[in-house]
Design brief:
Radius of gyration: 16 Å
Number of strands: 9
Structural class: alpha/beta
Largest sheet: 7 strands, mixed
Helix content: 25-40%
Shape: globular
Strand order of the largest sheet: 1-3-2-6-7-8-9
Number of helices: 5
Distance between the termini: 36 Å
């Protein structure tokens, strides 16, 4: 499988550099790798970032991490394959000891947590924006019960896209497996706004200091 397409931060480290941490921007369903770089302004100064394109092509420039179904059932095999594609990009692009700071919106938020649930030793301070988790267990879930890493989870209380069942499932998983910074923003739909991103900036500044 070819490596995922990506947009890299200005001044991306050259071949001789060895970044210790890199932010991964993970777009939502039906979007593309050019969608989230505008949020990079809220990352800590000097943190390199890469905005990755999801592997499932939808046409008209759109992409997705995994298919959606009308009944809310998610294809876990496709989710795991998408995470493998991200890790393939990481392994081919970054030093072996580099950590990733995943920040994902909607489906990309699920992917941020999926990276944590597959290789937690490589992930620090994941940011989940209007995201969720799938049903079922992942390889690292048992270990996360003990380590309980820091996670940011933000969502709007007027989000019409993420089903209440998915919100409840995500809350249960996050409460059991992480130490979460949780924010619910009144009146916010399936989107992000400046207040939320200010909270993300404070979270990352504390976790990556």
């Amino acid at each position: 499988m070819p490596l995922l397409n990506s947009v890299l931060s200005p001044g991306w480290p050259g071949p001789a550099a060895s970044p210790h941490r890199v932010a991964l921007l993970l777009h939502g369903f039906g979007s593309h790798e050019h969608d989230l770089p505008g949020l990079a302004a809220f990352l800590p100064r000097g943190l390199p970032w890469a905005s990755l394109r999801a592997p499932l092509e939808m046409g008209y420039g759109a992409a997705a991490w995994f298919p959606l179904s009308t009944d809310g059932v998610m294809d876990v095999t496709a989710i795991r394959a998408a995470a493998d594609a991200v890790w393939e990009w990481v392994d081919a692009t970054l030093p072996d000891d580099a950590q990733v700071v995943p920040m994902g919106f909607s489906q990309g938020g699920l992917m941020a947590l999926q990276l944590l649930r597959s290789r937690p030793e490589r992930v620090v301070a994941p940011v989940v924006l209007a995201g969720f988790v799938h049903e079922g267990e992942e390889p690292a879930d048992a270990a996360l019960l003990g380590t309980r890493p820091a996670v940011f989870w933000g969502r709007g209380d007027a989000d019409p896209v993420i089903w209440p069942e998915a919100v409840a499932r995500t809350a249960r998983w996050i409460d059991a497996h992480t130490v979460a910074t949780r924010h619910v923003y009144p009146g916010l739909g399936h989107a992000v706004h400046e207040e939320e991103m200010g909270d993300v900036r404070a979270f990352l500044a504390a976790q990556l200091a």
